[in-house]
Design goal:
Layout: H1 2-17, H2 20-24, H3 29-32, E1 49-52, E2 62-65, E3 70-75, E4 79-84, E5 87-88, E6 96-105, H4 113-118, E7 137-141, E8 147-149, E9 160-162, E10 166-167, H5 170-179, E11 185-189
Parallel strand pairs: 2-11, 5-9, 8-10
Antiparallel strand pairs: 1-4, 2-3, 3-4, 6-7, 6-11, 7-8
């Protein structure tokens, strides 16, 4: 730990001496975890923002609009937090109402048998981590095979690319994960 701290301080000092412009690109939180590059998610092509959202849904409800490729977390006062998402490609879109049945940080991934039939080249199991396609967090939707999960491919946000799950950047999925709990209602609309 002392060595890590010393290396971190040395890195910061060398960046500072290299000039202010270079130092501004370096976030010291990355040395110790928690900085913007911690999740290796890149910048979302669709920034998270608070928007007006008049609905009959209770605050805390998640509304997924697959046609808009957006996920809304309903807030009080006719507002929602809007996130960009990747959705199911043609033939894999669905709608319905479920509840978050489980939440996992850096989840392991075991492709379902249906996916393995389509893609026999996939691994049979992947431990959680930065290379895992479920990303930094996953929220499981009822007893379905579907999840709201992170992605290490931020360029897919706003696209129809998945097998029915909803992808978010790792930064966005971590933000949503911290705001909702098991039992949260998720309404998926086409």
């Amino acid at each position: 730990m002392k060595r890590c701290l010393a290396l971190g301080i040395a890195a910061v000092a060398s960046m500072a001496s290299a000039g202010m412009a270079r130092a501004e690109m370096f976030d010291t939180r990355d040395l110790f975890g928690g900085g913007p590059n911690f999740y290796q998610s890149g910048v979302s092509p669709i920034p998270r923002q608070t928007v007006m959202f008049q609905s009959q849904y209770a605050p805390g409800t998640i509304v997924v609009s697959t046609s808009e490729r957006r996920l809304y977390l309903v807030l009080p006062g006719g507002q929602a937090l809007r996130y960009g998402i990747g959705v199911g490609r043609d033939g894999f879109r669905w709608s319905g109402v479920h509840r978050i049945s489980a939440k996992k940080e850096w989840p392991a991934w075991t492709p379902p048998s249906q996916m393995l039939r389509r893609r026999p080249d996939l691994p049979r199991h992947m431990a959680g981590g930065i290379e895992n396609p479920l990303g930094a967090r996953a929220m499981y939707l009822g007893s379905t095979l579907y999840r709201i999960h992170g992605s290490n491919e931020p360029e897919t946000i706003g696209q129809a690319v998945s097998s029915g799950c909803f992808r978010m950047t790792n930064d966005d999925v971590a933000d949503l994960y911290d705001r909702v709990s098991v039992g949260t209602t998720v309404i998926v609309k086409n």
